[in-house]
Amino acid sequence: MSTCNEPHHADHDHQHGPNCGHTAIRHGDHVDYLHDGHLHHPHTDHVDEHRLEVSAKNPDRCTPDHNCGGHAPDHIHGPGCGHEPVPHGDHVDYLVNGHLHHPHDDHCDDHGPVELA
């Protein structure tokens, strides 16, 4: 095993890469893959667990007036909702039309765009 200090995803046999079937997201200077609610980064002999950082590009803010048209106004994000979960800061957002949605009270907050790879 490498000397990487990132958290690792144990027992991960799937090989992530172009055309592997998972959504690829540009994250800093590399590409991560959305896989079962995790953001995976293939790294030498293992898979790192990543999270998108809270930043100016991907803030953690309340945006009650956000209306992206990516789902019905009464849509509720959660397991099986049809949108991929994305670890972001200390919470989970959902990928909708190229940006992060965070369920909050009676609306979805816009936590910024992601760049699909």
From TrEMBL:
Basic and acidic residues bias: start-end ranges: 1-16, 26-58
Ranges where the record places region Disordered: 1-58
Protein's recorded name: Threonine dehydratase
